[in-house]
Amino acid sequence: MRPISPELLVEEVADRVAALEGKPWLRMAVDGAAAALPEDLADALVDPLRLRGRPVVRVRARDFLRPASVRLEHGREDAHAFYEDWLDEGGLRREVLDPLDADGGTGRVLPSLWDAAADRATRASYLAVPEGGVLILDGTLLLGRWLPFELTVHLSLSAGALARRTAPDQRWTLPAFERYEAEAAPADEADVVVRVDDPRHPALVDRDG
């Protein structure tokens, strides 16, 4: 692992994204447990990429959850449902990822689909993504689902750090992350892996190949 400052981490990831061809578009994901703060890294990448000449569209997986009747069918604290049933993969593919496919994509994406707090559709308007544009999606448990991305970043936490940094009212989700590690192996799946046991002192996991 290579220690790196949070600021340099953003610059390195932005350089890597900007170096990719991205024709006509590029789809990237920042994956990690809420305790790893994937949303913060995704947000921090927006301006550096724009400075590198790449238009950016930010989308959050939390805006593509299924209705409460599906998510909570087995109760409010079912870790297996959290892993399997919460994310509306079909909606995310249909409205965000497939429209940015190089083979026949329209370039028009829906930035949000479902307001989980209100449990209703967001009624958002479609956005046109310019050629060369980058979609940055952040979320939890995103890898191992065969979602189409050109670049994936996984923010990794040790089991101990994850337990310590997960809010008490969210600790019921911990078995889902154990299962994620066992079944999806996100640190093997991702293009870029960052260890964030201490968010002030991240470390890039350098791998051959």
TrEMBL record:
Organism: Wenjunlia tyrosinilytica
Record key words, sorted: Kinase, Transferase
One GO molecular-function entry: kinase activity
Record protein name field: Uridine kinase
Superkingdom to which the source organism belongs: Bacteria
InterPro entries: P-loop_NTPase (IPR027417)
Keyword Kinase set for record: yes
